[in-house]
Each structure stands twice: as structure tokens, then as C-alpha cells.
């Protein structure tokens, strides 16, 4: 079945909350209202759809406007049955494309034990900046803070 990425729809928010509860049960999964608040706040949220079924979602917020734009990835999640098929990458690339036009540096947090996600982020140019101890609650799991420099910043760096 073909998977496509498109704007997250209000009617999908209940399903987002269900996926959150399944994927992030040991932490503090987002509610339907939390997703609605993000969309109502004007942040960029997209869904991965297999036909009409929501199988993943992602969101990013522009925190600082140009000329030194900064953005933060808020979430990326893919249903377990669909993981490993490039859907997380497609969602991430959509988020990065959304903030590319303002040449934003992008930040995110990821669990230190989520090796697949860390590898995905590193392949897309993210680097680890540090560790946030006990970032995820209530599990107490640590998170890496990662950053992907804006295109203009990376052009000026030397190898």
C-alpha cells in the first residue's frame, strides 16, 4: 500500500492520542487536546497515511524568526507495524523542508536508548549537543539534545 504525507487533519487527533498512548506509555503521552493546541497554534504538523488510515505523525515549530531562525521538532511517531519502512524519514524530511525556506537551525530531543531514531537524525545532519538527564517523565529516561545547523551556517563551517 502506498503511504503519503499530508497535513494532519483535525479528525486524526484522536488517533494521534491513541498512537501516543501506545508508543509512549511509559512517559507522558500527548492528549488529543495537546495535538489540537499545536495545530491551533499554527505549528506545522503532518500525518503519514496508508490510504485513509493515519499511521504516523510529526510536528515542528518555528521558535525564532529569521534572520537567525530556529525550529524545534516536537514529535515524530510511526505505528510499530509500519516502522522500518522509511516513514519516519519521510516525516522528518517534510519537517525539514518546511523550515528550510527560512534557513532555520533545528533542535530536537530524543531518548538516549532510541538508536534507530538517533541514526536517522544523524543521517540527516543532526549532531548530539548534550544529555538532558531524566528528561522524559515519569520514566526518567535521558534524552540527547541534537541540532542540525541551518544551511547558511553549515556552508561557513570547515571540515
TrEMBL record:
Q: Which residues form the N-acetyltransferase domain?
A: 3-151
The species this protein was found in: Crossiella cryophila
Q: Which PROSITE patterns match?
A: GNAT
Q: Which PANTHER family match?
A: L-AMINO ACID N-ACETYLTRANSFERASE, N-ALPHA-ACETYLTRANSFERASE RIMI
* Lineage summary: Bacteria, Bacillati, Actinomycetota, Actinomycetes, Pseudonocardiales
Which terms in the Gene Ontology molecular function aspect does this entry carry?
protein-N-terminal-alanine acetyltransferase activity
**This enzyme's EC code(s):** 2.3.1.267
- Top-rank taxon of the source lineage equals Bacteria
Tell me the protein's name: Ribosomal-protein-alanine N-acetyltransferase
Record's keyword terms, sorted = Acyltransferase, Transferase
Amino acid at each position: 500500500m502506498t503511504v503519503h504525507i499530508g497535513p494532519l487533519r483535525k479528525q486524526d487527533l484522536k488517533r494521534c492520542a491513541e498512537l501516543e498512548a501506545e508508543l509512549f506509555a511509559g512517559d507522558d503521552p500527548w492528549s488529543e487536546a495537546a495535538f489540537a493546541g499545536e495545530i491551533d497554534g499554527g505549528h506545522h504538523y503532518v500525518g503519514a497515511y496508508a490510504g485513509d488510515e493515519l499511521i504516523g505523525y510529526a510536528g515542528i515549530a518555528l521558535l525564532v524568526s529569521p534572520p537567525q531562525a530556529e525550529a524545534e521538532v516536537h514529535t515524530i511517531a510511526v505505528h510499530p507495524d509500519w516502522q522500518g519502512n522509511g516513514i519516519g524519514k519521510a516525516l522528518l524530511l517534510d519537517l525539514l523542508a518546511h523550515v528550510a525556506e527560512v534557513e532555520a537551525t533545528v533542535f530536537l530531543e530524543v531518548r538516549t536508548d532510541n538508536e534507530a531514531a538517533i541514526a536517522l537524525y544523524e543521517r540527516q545532519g543532526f549532531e548530539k549537543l548534550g544529555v538532558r538527564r531524566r528528561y522524559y517523565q515519569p520514566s526518567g529516561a535521558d534524552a540527547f539534545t541534537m541540532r542540525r545547523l541551518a544551511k547558511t551556517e553549515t556552508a561557513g563551517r570547515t571540515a
